[in-house]
Design brief:
Number of helices of chain B: 12
Strand content of chain B: under 5%
CATH class of the largest domain in chain A: Alpha Beta
Structural class of chain B: mainly alpha
CATH architecture of the largest domain in chain A: 3-Layer(aba) Sandwich
Structural class of chain A: alpha/beta
Oligomer: heterodimer
Largest interface: A-B, 27 and 22 residues
Largest sheet of chain B: none
Number of strands of chain B: 0
Radius of gyration of chain A: 22 Å
Distance between the termini of chain B: 25 Å
């Protein structure tokens, strides 16, 4: 059963149509990315999903509850990290998390247990008594994520969660999101393709409030690496056993080097493959996961749309 | 009820952490204390009527400072999105902010009870007008807070919220003077809307059901408009 169901959703701000007839379904434990330039309607869709905005037309349900007619029940099943992770700067971390927990009906030992799990999982134990306004951007983002997962939601909604984070914090945050994906459905927005490509299972591409396409990222994910040309046959042999069902492309790179690309592979599998190549005595000069296909798809779709 | 309690606790803490609460209370008590001492020294009468009128005027000036931040700051800081996307009902969010503002104002007004105790210790005041005066101040404060909250819910700018609230309070306070220029029965409508005309009986010791009804109706209307302002999104 779909955890999120969006049917023909539209939202109008005065004369401007911010979301135009979007339909979408997101399944259990799926990570769905919403991708689009600024003003494409990503945040508006999330705000409607979380009950902050009312739709002009269409139907949206979360965990089977209509977000307008059964708003409280739907909101009870959602965790939300809005853009820029707004928090109460004068509150202490634990005080804020307790407050958010109580708003979602947690109390007594249940609340204390949920707080302990959230603190532990998000690395907030050391800052539990800190004043939020004095925390770094990365910690504030963690606090915001902690309040969103405190009540064990069916759906976690993250709006541009890596905005303003440094590269190290982005990697940490990505790992946190991957961990959370095992427990709930996640919808995440970004205007950075690479970010979406790394965490999402599927991506919905939006432009001007319209849904252009939904792409399964398992087909667009790939790993690229370079090896010396003289070990090409041995690399082929390893790939045939390790990545037999995956599409492999090989092309000459700089002098004496080959560039390899293995399609539809996630990062853990890529790491395993690199390890196997190294164990077979081959030197992988460079290994990078890339999202070139997603970039191409995105550019192609948005260019087509712009020409209309 | 648990959600409402959590919201009230958070709002009361937020208000009392802010220096605005202490500045407002200090100025309110300083000016009232000064008036009390001067009037008592000059008139030698055991009455608080002048304190009630002065407190009412001060409430008109300080309530916008208390209510301006309530929703405007949440909207500007983005935390309104957190509140409204939580399962907490809008009415609870509004009632919590109302309760927090009233806690501060009732505390402020309550501290002036010391003047009544001084009068009772050294003289023989007529206690009827003292009780009704305090009832009038609390009712006036609740009406002003609910209007201030409705204005705050409509804007993200605290200064705009304060100025618009002050304008509405000033107009409602003195709208009875407009009645003299208007024909009957329209003049009565304006007289009926005047905060001054409704408050005066309380200050001098006369309590009418219609005045109670007026302040309670304005309070409920203000709270209703605040909820509607939040729901309009």
């Amino acid at each position: 059963m779909a955890v999120v169901s969006v049917e023909n959703l539209s939202k109008r701000y005065g004369a401007r149509l911010a979301v135009d007839g979007v339909s979408l379904e997101v399944g259990q434990h799926e990570v769905m990315g919403l991708l689009g330039p600024n003003g494409s309607g990503k945040t508006t869709i999330l705000r409607i999903l979380t009950g902050y905005l009312r739709p002009t037309a269409g139907a949206v349900s979360v965990a089977g509850f209509d977000v307008v007619r059964q708003g409280r029940s739907a909101r009870q099943r959602i965790g939300y990290v809005p853009e820029d992770a707004p928090l109460y700067p004068q509150m202490r971390v634990d005080e804020f998390l307790e407050f958010m927990g109580r708003l979602r009906g947690l109390d007594g030992s249940k609340l204390q247990a949920a707080l302990a799990i959230a603190r532990e999982r998000l690395g907030l134990v050391d800052v539990r008594d800190a004043i939020i306004g004095r925390l770094s951007r990365g910690y504030r983002q963690r606090v915001s994520l902690a309040q969103a997962v405190l009540h064990g939601p069916d759906l976690l909604v993250l709006d541009e969660p890596t905005n303003g984070l440094d590269p190290r914090q982005i990697i940490e945050f990505r790992d946190l999101v991957r961990g959370l994906a095992k427990q709930c459905t996640i919808i995440i927005t970004s205007h950075i393709l690479g970010e979406i490509a790394r965490v999402a299972d599927r991506v919905a591409i939006l432009l001007g409030g319209r849904l252009l396409a939904v792409r399964d990222l398992s087909h667009t994910r790939s790993i690229c690496f370079r090896t010396r040309a003289d070990v090409a046959d041995r690399v082929e042999a390893v790939l045939q056993t390790a990545a037999a069902r995956l599409a492999v492309a090989r092309e000459p790179d700089s002098e004496g080097m080959y560039r390899w690309r293995v399609q539809a592979i996630d990062e853990p599998a890529a790491n395993r493959l690199t390890g196997e190549l190294a164990a077979a005595g081959m030197v992988v000069v460079e290994a990078t996961a890339n999202s070139a296909d997603l970039e191409e798809t995105f550019l192609e779709l948005t260019t087509q749309e712009a020409r209309r | 009820m648990k959600v409402l309690r959590a919201l009230i606790t958070k709002e009361v803490r937020a208000l009392f952490v802010s220096p605005i609460a202490y500045a407002v209370a200090a100025v309110f008590l300083l000016l009232n204390g000064y008036s009390f001492v001067m009037t008592l020294a000059l008139s030698k009468q055991a009455t608080l009527v002048h304190i009630f009128f002065q407190s009412a005027m001060l409430l008109i000036l300080v309530v916008p400072l208390v209510t301006m931040r309530q929703f405007a700051e949440e909207r500007r800081g983005g935390t309104l999105e957190l509140l409204l996307s939580s399962p907490a009902p809008e009415i609870d969010i509004v009632l919590a902010k109302f309760a927090a503002a009233m806690t501060l104002l009732v505390t402020m007004v309550g501290l002036t009870v010391i003047y009544a105790l001084v009068l009772g210790y050294f003289g023989k005041p007529d206690w009827g007008p003292v009780y009704s005066g305090y009832a009038g101040l609390i009712l006036l404060a609740s009406a002003l807070v609910s209007i201030g909250l409705a204005v705050s819910a409509l804007t993200a700018n605290q200064i705009v919220a304060a100025v618009v609230s002050l304008g509405i309070f000033g107009l409602l306070w003195a709208i009875d003077s407009l009645a003299a220029l208007l024909p009957s029965p329209i003049d009565n409508w304006f007289l009926g809307l005047s905060l001054l005309a409704r408050f005066t009986p309380f200050a001098v010791g006369a309590m009418y059901t219609s005045d109670f009804g007026f302040f309670i109706s304005v309070t409920l209307l203000g709270l209703f408009l605040t909820v509607r302002a939040l729901a309009r999104r």
